[in-house]
Specification:
Layout: E1 10-17, H1 18-26, E2 30-31, H2 43-54, E3 62-67, E4 76-77, E5 80-81, E6 90-95, H3 97-107, E7 124-127, E8 132-135, E9 145-147, H4 154-167, H5 171-189, E10 192-199, H6 203-213, H7 222-229, H8 238-249, H9 259-269, H10 279-283, H11 286-312, H12 324-336, H13 342-358, H14 366-380, H15 408-419, H16 433-440, E11 445-447, E12 464-466, H17 476-480, H18 484-490, H19 501-505, H20 509-530
Parallel strand pairs: 2-6, 3-10
Antiparallel strand pairs: 1-10, 3-6, 4-5, 7-8, 7-9, 11-12
Helix pairs in contact: 4-5, 7-8, 9-11, 9-12, 11-12, 12-14, 13-15
Length: 562
Amino acid sequence: MIDNKRSRTEVMSEVVFLGKLVERIVAGKIRVPRFQRAFVWKQSDLHALLESILRGFPIGSILVWDTEEKIESTERIGPVPIGPPPDGSVGYLLDGQQRVSTLVGTLLLTHAMENIADQVDWRVYCDLDTLEFHRAPKEGLRPHHFPVRSLLNTAGFFEACRHIQSEVDDRARSQRWLDEADRLASAFRDYQLPLVHIREADLDSAVTVFARLNRTGRKMTADEMVSTLTYQAGQFHLAQKLTEFKAELVPRGFGNIDRVFLLRAVLAALDRDIYAKGWADIMVKQEVREKLPHAFADAAEGIRRALEFLKRLGVTSDRLLPYGLQLVLLGEFFRRCPEPTERVVELLNRWFWVTSFTGWFGGVNTAQAKRALSEVSQLSAGKGSGFSVIDLEAPAQPFPDRFDGRSARVRAFLIYLASLRPRSIQGAGALDPGELLAIRGTAAVGYVSTNQPLARLIRSPANRMFVDRSHVGQAFGVLRGLSDCRLTELLPTHGFPVNSIPRLRNNDRAGLIEARLETLIDGEREFMKKLNVVPPAERTAATVADSDVSDDQYSEIDPGEG
């Protein structure tokens, strides 16, 4: 809530030398608050920032909130430990964390910090021949690879220069590299950047500024944004809780589920709009903050029950789940109704299969999706007997003519393929499709053959089959090397017709895939009938609409560096 009596936020700016900024940070005078997300930049981002400084390009301003209020902050920036906060006012980074972490981590790295496990290698070198930044080459460092950590350290700089002189016999080349090193160090020592200070602001105002700044640039997940907006020292931290919950989902095969669906489940448990765009307007409200821990616990329990429901249907991986919103709605149902009647379970079964095979969630607007959630909620309360927004008699989409792991229709097909209980092509045991997909992604569904004569069939789902974790390359050669007895047992578990063996022996790859395609289409249609889903009118494979792409591909809000 905005307090009209609150004093106006004061903004001041100064221009500081890069070395002075780094000194303040290491001294603990400028700190990274814990409500910031972790370091997310890639190695190439580090190199690009350092190149910008070398070339004198602006890298943007650093935004700092100056306050005497004590806020939880990190003990290190990048690999570098920082000092304790001083008495009095402290500056907390609101915008610029990725840039500051890059500068501190690469410029102040010591040998003792090299073993700290991070997602990037802070040991960056500048090639004095090309003036490009990179990690240490695999073939080893050469004298012209100048360590970035020596650029602001006088003793380190002279040591690196002496190394060039002692290792290079060609005096002209040695001098050229020394001159380049001097220009390189000067570029960093003389570099200045703007530091913007926000003063006379409270925590709510500070994190709101932070959130509004992070609407552009590298994406921040929605839950991280909400965590920023709801941050209070020592209290509930949504992003951290969702990280812990995702770790819990890994053994269930759902560790890759997009976090935004878990957030939508929390919003549903709060009785809020799961498609709300005004995150700040919702989450800064005190009544919502107070309910958030309980809503998260309820939503998590609903998701756990929904996953047990999906497991019984054969959906044992997020890569088999056609739509993330199916999990959100099922989670809300089981949150409200942990023990539904047998009749309601049968209705939910049909609801899941129809929405999967028809691609319902791929072609609806938010209003229709909200109605679907409302009807699921009504059903959980015993107030509804069915669904009106979803036509349970609608025919399924046709068999897809190409394999795309992002396609909801292909994922529905994979559930059918997994229901055949495929066996290993390398051993005698059964495969676990859900586990394979969770670990390997779509690489778990390998090619039968990649030979050019297959033409259009190369991309067909009929040319893909579940393979072992260690399998590499096409499966055709492996299958052809198996005995007739083994193939008789194996092939039907992968949807190959029983008369496939002669085609294998004759190296008839196109004929094998054509025959399997017909068998899979027929088998999937029978699978649908057993599930009370109306099969597609045509038996032929067809291109599925672009809207069929699973909704987990478009689930992040846009927000920025942080």
